[in-house]
């Protein structure tokens, strides 16, 4: 049952709950990020224009410590908290599709329409790892897209953060890399027959869900030898 809902003039593109459940970040087609008090639905925005993006917001996410958040945008930048750090042209000017924190809140994993996933160190703003080997760049180039994907999707860590997963647009399978070394693992068939637009991994177990334009959501779980 819907109790109440904020009214936005622009199409919603991303939302993220504060870990306390009291606040909600909302990213829309408008470049200004909204913060809502869930109890009163009062809306807050930054009074500093430099804290805002210049194009539609494509992703918002709180960190596990609940003291900062990261946003990404079609303007190609990634911004965290009250703009304490900006990853300028994070994906060489391509639209940034997603950005999520690591569990220790020291790193951000971003993906972009340049078909690359990147691991950023927040304290320095530098790229530590690029996840590109073979998977997306090769398959998309083969499709005549010059290595750039057409649709937004997001990259995620697995529950141990040993791996990074990102759906591949052409093969409809997730690319998987070792998070520290960027070594690419084998593709996993997801059984979808259209583009995967959303992937969410459990924070505690070896399971994840995928949602596709084939109108299906699928749950995947890796059983241990003791199950």
From TrEMBL:
GO terms for biological process: mRNA 3'-end processing. Gene3D superfamilies: YVTN repeat-like/Quinoprotein amine dehydrogenase. GO terms for cellular component: mRNA cleavage stimulating factor complex. Signal peptide: none annotated. Keywords: mRNA processing, Nucleus, Repeat, WD repeat. PROSITE patterns: WD_REPEATS_1 (PS00678), WD_REPEATS_2 (PS50082), WD_REPEATS_REGION (PS50294). Its main location: nucleus. It is found in: Nucleus. GO terms for molecular function: RNA binding. WD repeats lie at residues 96-130. This is Cleavage stimulation factor 50 kDa subunit.
């Amino acid at each position: 049952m819907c109790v109440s809902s904020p009214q936005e003039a622009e199409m919603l593109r991303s939302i993220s709950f504060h870990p306390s459940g009291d606040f909600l970040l909302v990213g829309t087609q408008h470049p200004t990020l909204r913060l809502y008090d869930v109890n009163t639905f009062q809306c807050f925005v930054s009074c500093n224009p430099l804290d805002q993006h210049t194009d539609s917001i494509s992703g918002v996410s709180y960190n596990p410590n609940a003291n900062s958040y990261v946003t990404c945008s079609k303007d190609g930048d990634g911004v965290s908290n009250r703009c304490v750090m900006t990853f300028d042209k994070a994906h060489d000017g391509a639209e940034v599709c997603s950005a999520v924190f690591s569990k220790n809140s020291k790193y951000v994993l971003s993906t972009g329409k340049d078909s690359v996933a990147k691991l950023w160190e927040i304290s320095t703003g530098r790229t530590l790892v690029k996840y590109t080997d073979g998977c997306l760049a090769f398959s998309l180039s083969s499709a005549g897209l010059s290595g750039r994907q057409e649709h937004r999707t997001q990259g995620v860590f697995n529950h141990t953060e040993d791996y990074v997963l990102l759906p591949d647009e052409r093969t409809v399978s997730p690319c998987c890399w070792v998070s520290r070394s960027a070594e690419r693992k084998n593709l996993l068939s997801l059984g979808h027959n259209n583009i995967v637009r959303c992937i969410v991994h459990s924070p505690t177990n070896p399971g994840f869900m995928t949602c596709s334009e084939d109108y299906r959501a699928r749950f995947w779980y890796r059983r241990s030898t003791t199950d």
